[in-house]
Amino acid sequence: MPLPLILTGLTFGLAYLGIKGVDVTVDAIWDKLELNNRHHKKLESPNECSNIFQGRWVYDPNFPPLDYTKNCPFVPQQFECLKHGRPDNDYLKYKWIPNSCKLPRFHGINFLKKVRGKSVMIVGDSVLLGIANGLRCDFLVDMVVGDNKERVLKLDSIEKGTAKWDGYDVLVFNTWNQGLQTGKNQLWDVIEEGNVRHKNMDPLVACEKALNTWTKWVNSKVDSKKTQIFFQGISPDHFKSRNWANPNARNCARETRPAPGKRYPGGRHPAEAVLEKVLKQIQKPIQFMNVTAMSQLRKDGHTSIYGANGKHVDCTNWCLPGLPDVWNELLSARLLLGY
Ligand SMILES: *[C@@H]1O[C@H](CO)[C@@H](O)[C@H](O)[C@H]1NC(C)=O
Questions:
Q1: Cα distances (angstroms) measured from residue 186 to each of 7, 99, 179
Q2: Signal peptide: which range, if any (predicted)?
Q3: Number of CB atoms found within 10 A of residue 53's CB
Q4: What is the pLDDT of residue 329?
Q5: Domains held by the chain: number
Q6: Do 228 and 121 touch, CB atoms closer than 8 A?
């Protein structure tokens, strides 16, 4: 009897392992994968790979696009851009080539063999699940309902989450979409730190505090002999075309190609420095998946007006299939091959 593999919130390339609240057993997924996996070759043997996150995007007209949307009940449909009328599909044909090695294509069956009998939890946010109002870095810390029914985000408390994460073999934190969401998508009414309440707080500052609370939990509670932790970096948005020097664009709409070259003209993501500072505090071995720079180049990958809610130009979430599959390839290369 395989252990149930409970994943919340990650669309795992073709292995659509689960959406929030759905438990799937490995065997059930296995059947689905068999349907999708025929064109996948065997994994290449491991080779030298010093930094899989540094590299370039290369267009390959013959790159077989992943199509996991037909037989898989778990794909969140709101991000299936082709289904919602996206006319171009070159964005599916860019391969990520790390400078130092070749990346194996994500192989669902091998991935599942590796995780079989293990429990994996993906503490996911909206970008991977693909829900625009999903959780942000605020869900690392506790959210409670206060006396007046207001939603209180407690920056220094992490008990509710950790109870759920306890005992897993692999925990994947994929937490930073836009830091803490403010404005109409905001998930809380009040931020609390110690006994002090704040109505407003700079989202970068609040996010740093939440991450620090998480770091303390990792340092004091995680047993690294048992649990392997992956932490995925910031997923960038593309609302300002001046960042990629296209005078004809305003945002990601109608972008059909990645920004050329290896370096994003808009420079480093503003939250990068915060994350660097936080990561330095972690005393346990964690696998940091630095997908930010590679994703910054992919101004062409967003749902734009081809999401389920086509009225708005969405330059935060990504088309599926699409860039998140590449992140998953990187994640599984780490997990399977130790890249
Ligand atoms: C991620 O990689 C980029 C570019 O390689 C680097 O500038 C950035 O500092 C890295 N992020 C973190 C949090 O280390």
A1: 25, 39, 11
A2: 1-21
A3: 18
A4: 79
A5: 1
A6: no
CB 107 within 8 A of CB 43: yes
Q: Which residues line ligand 1 (CB under 6 A)?
A: 54, 233, 268, 272, 275-276, 279, 290, 292-293
**Mean pLDDT calculated for residue range 241-250:** 87
Task: Give the distance (Å) from ligand 1 centre to CA of residue 96.
Answer: 17
Domain residue limits at 234? 4-337
pTM attached to this predicted model = 0.79
pLDDT at 235 over 90: no
Closest residue by Cα to atom 10, ligand 1, is: 290
- The β-bridge relationship of strands 94-98 and 55-59 is antiparallel
Q: What is the DSSP string of 204-273?
A: HHHHHHHHHHHHHHHHHH--TTT-EEEEE-PPP----GGGGT-TT-SSSTT--SPPSSSS-TT-S-TTHH
Q: What is the pLDDT of residues 76-130, one digit of tens each?
A: 677 889 989 999 999 999 999 998 877 776 666 666 666 666 776 766 554 444 3
Positions of E strands within 84-169: 94-98, 120-123, 142-145, 151-154
Distance CA 338, CA 35 (A): 27
CA 272 to ligand 1: nearest atom:
13
For 220-232, write each residue's pLDDT tens digit: 999 999 888 888 8
298 three-state secondary structure: coil
Look at residue 19 and tell me whether its pLDDT is greater than 60.
no
User: Residue 25 — very low, low, confident or very high, per pLDDT cuts 50/70/90?
Assistant: very low
- Which pLDDT band, with edges at 50, 70 and 90, does 177 fall under? low
265 residue type, one letter = P
> What pLDDT score does 294 carry?
96
Distance from the alpha carbon of residue 267 to the mean position of ligand 1, in angstroms: 11
Q: What spacing in Å lies between the alpha carbon of 156 and ligand 1's midpoint?
A: 26
Specify the pLDDT at position 160.
77
- Residue 292 C-alpha to ligand 1 middle, in angstroms? 7
